[in-house]
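user: can you give me the structure for this one chain? tokens are fine.
assistant: on it. calling the predictor now.
[tool input]
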Amino acid sequence: MTHPRPVAARPVAAGPVAAGPVAAGPVAAGPVAAGVPPAAARSAAQRDREMKRPSTAARRRRSQVAVASRRRIPGVTATAVRRDAAHLLALLAVDAELSVALVSDAEMQALNRDYRATDRPTDVLAFALREGEGAHLHDDVLGDVVISLDTAVRQAAARGHAVAAEVRFLLAHGLLHLLGYDHERSPAEARRMFARQRALLRAIERESPLGKVARR
């Protein structure tokens, strides 16, 4: 579960996107609420305070999510992923457009190789377009979450829960990375990120039950 920084504002791979305005590329992102500094520049406490504001139905309606489904498996639909992403954005009080790509292990391996010099698939990659080189050109863009459905199937089977629940877990994990959380930064940051992740999953499970995800 990683969050590579993009090179300038380049998209993650070539190919069509499900929806949403972007520069050419498969996983696009749209504008985020103005006036919020890059996540990396904010303290963890500041991020937590910003994300604890109560959600509203209106905020969820404003949030726009583009889902590119380039790998299809039973039990996971673009519609359900789009709904979960919008719900997560509302819980986090983020009025933003987000792009999600559901891909195969082969495509994920290519991305992991190209962006992280690691020639194997992984479960989720997050491309935070408000960080790194060229971020000042995209301060209104949240970023992209890419999920390998093949890896999600294996991990769900190994942990004894539904594939849809695993995809939801990976979506929440990737989204928190886009917002500046990083479990690899320090043990304290890992505890903070995973506590936030568990709270999000509990909240969304209450409204759209998929069954509990085995604790990592």
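assistant: here you go. The helical segments are 44-51, 57-62, 78-91, 105-116, 149-159, 163-178, 187-207. The two ends are 12 Å apart (CA to CA).
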